[in-house]
Amino acid sequence: xxxxFSAALTALMLSLAWQSTVTAAEEATNANPVDFRACNFRxxxxxxxxxxxxxxxxxxxxxxxxxxxxWMLIPELQNEATFDFGWLGSWPDGVAYxxxxxxxxKKGNAVAAEINTVVDxxxxxxxxxxxxxxxxxxxxxxxxxxxFACNLNEGKSLEEAYAAQLEFGHTMKANGSQSVSWFYTPxxxxxxxxxxxxxxxxxxxxxxxxxxxxxxxxxxxxxxxxKLITPVASCLTPDVYDAVSVRAHDETK
Length: 253
Hints:
By secondary structure, the protein is α+β, with helices and mostly antiparallel strands. The chain has a single domain (10-247), classed as Alpha-Beta Plaits. Helix content is 34%, strand content 30%. The two termini are 32 Å apart.
């Protein structure tokens, strides 16, 4: 997670240029921008100190009406977490991202300064394009989020990897998994050691996570992965985070 996304700006053009040609299930899907910030509490501060600033942030976002959604990602299972929590933001499209960013830089200074007194989110700021696999209709809320870092096998492309992850995700869903999932491709802000893409899987409950874990290990998921994913890419075991919703994209109250 600390190397979330790579700095390959060319991936933006690739993501935006992709037409829905891989499978019929991929039709009418578009990539949307997401960003990640690694945040650490300042000395003597904790989550309780942050709550008033988050209330003011939500009030600002309602007035700005940008379609922006955000979550706090609290490390749960990982090798070495270098931050107290991650901030994951999402916009419905690139236009919304541009408008949101301009408004934040012009009108969000007071809220940003208040947040900055509690946390430092300046060490890592990266972006990616997100494509749906089993994405929900609305904005996901609280839950569990898994990030699988994946690298393409020699001669394979992101289009082939997306097709494989799409078939894998849909088959797991058909077999009973309650997961939601996305395909994150690199955009900007991470170093050269970042993976080629992230397979991101979410659950609303740990019981759903546990059932899919059992499905993967004991009911054919491993074999399905070896059939569909292994020929295209190599994915590490995931980092796991508790995802806490800060704001839904359509929040108005």
